[in-house]
Design a protein that fits this description.
alpha/beta; Aspartate Aminotransferase, domain 1; 2 domains; seven-stranded mixed sheet; 11 helices
Length: 354
């Protein structure tokens, strides 16, 4: 780093995204992307929008917000649009973290970074047993709370009544529920924003709506919370969602049924692969996300990751205490997962004969 870099960031450990190699064609099961492409309608909408790329986009995302309000049955002033859900999550730490922010110790790796970047005290709460979040651990917390639901990288899910218990027991602090993976089998807590003024939900279209490259996300909450977040958004980048991103998001919402069918197909494939892994002796956490978190007693996680990579298949391995024996496996198409399972079986056979 240069001698000009602010001292507060000198020891900041930046977020490490999943690798995106270009050296050869891989089966990418490492970044929780959708295996299904955007619909033709989305492609056409983006092609049309790019013709006006010389003009600034709508800073209010009016059409996209209006359609989101219709699809998700909220008022327009209860939803805002963002450059992926990472943006609104960072704003939430800044806006509501005055007393600190609690989050699961094993969860989305950006949470502690958002805390550090926004000069907020972060409090990681340990998971218990089979990497479970215990809702009661977040009752009367006295801080803001951020929970990914389903959690990452485990995929485990808290039902809406558990979320409501957390929200209700922390009336003086905002509870943020990160629902990046909610469309793959979980039940959303979104209706609760009508009941509680301290609940903020975030969503992304990176996974469920095949728009990881378009960077489209949403925040949902009462109008007062949305006004707080919008104050920060407009103070940082009011043109935060490009014209192409807005067009893609709008077209995707207009064809929401197609994307929900894709999510259902991913969930079905997930269960098939989970059962196959269990039959091969893997430990696999229950998941309602578009990925599985698995370990095998005969091969360390890093070695499994590397052996799969050598065979042209990317999964995610985390060099983190307590989970080094695990790999996170994004769910691809049925054909991709057949190739994955064939590779896994081959690796296990080679290990037994090594």
């Amino acid at each position: 780093m240069s001698r000009f870099f602010h001292s507060r960031y000198a020891s900041l450990k930046q977020y490490t995204p999943g690798e995106q190699p270009r050296d050869k064609a891989y089966i990418k099961l490492n970044t929780n992307e959708s295996p299904y492409p955007p619909s033709d309608r989305v492609v056409q909408a983006v092609e049309q929008a790019v013709k006006n790329a010389h003009l600034y986009c709508d800073p209010s995302c009016t059409l996209l917000r209006r359609e989101a309000a219709r699809v998700y049955q909220v008022d327009m002033d209860e939803v805002l649009c963002f450059n992926g859900s990472d943006e609104v999550l960072s704003f939430a730490f800044s806006a509501f973290g005055e007393d600190g922010v609690a989050y699961p110790a094993l969860s989305y790796g950006f949470y502690p970074i958002f805390a550090r970047m926004n000069l907020v005290e972060g409090l990681p709460i340990p998971l218990v047993g089979q990497m479970r979040i215990v809702p009661e651990d977040y009752h009367q917390m006295g801080k803001a709370i951020v929970i990914a639901n389903p959690n990452a990288p485990t995929g485990q899910f808290l039902p809406p009544e558990a979320v409501e218990g957390i929200v209700r027991s922390n009336p003086n602090h905002v509870v943020v529920i990160d629902e990046a993976y909610i469309d793959f089998g979980g039940q959303s807590a979104l209706p609760l924003i009508k009941k509680y003024e301290n609940l903020l939900l975030t969503r992304t279209f990176s996974k469920s709506h095949s728009l990881a490259g378009a960077r489209v996300g949403f925040g949902f909450g009462c109008k007062e919370l949305m006004r707080d977040i919008d104050t920060l958004r407009c103070s940082v980048n009011p043109y935060n969602v490009s014209s192409m991103g807005q067009a893609a998001g709008l077209a995707a919402l207009e064809e929401n049924g197609y994307y929900m069918a894709c999510c259902k197909a991913v969930a079905q494939t997930r269960e098939t692969v989970r059962n196959q892994l269990l039959n091969l002796g893997f430990s696999v956490t229950p998941s309602l996300a578009n990925f599985l978190f698995a370990s095998h007693p005969d091969i360390p996680g890093e070695k499994m990751y590397q052996r799969l990579r050598d065979k042209g298949i990317l999964v995610r391995w985390f060099n983190q205490e307590g989970i080094r024996d695990f790999v996170r496996i994004s769910i691809g198409s049925p054909r991709q997962m057949e190739d994955f399972m064939t590779a896994v079986q081959t690796i296990l056979q080679e290990e037994r004969h090594a």
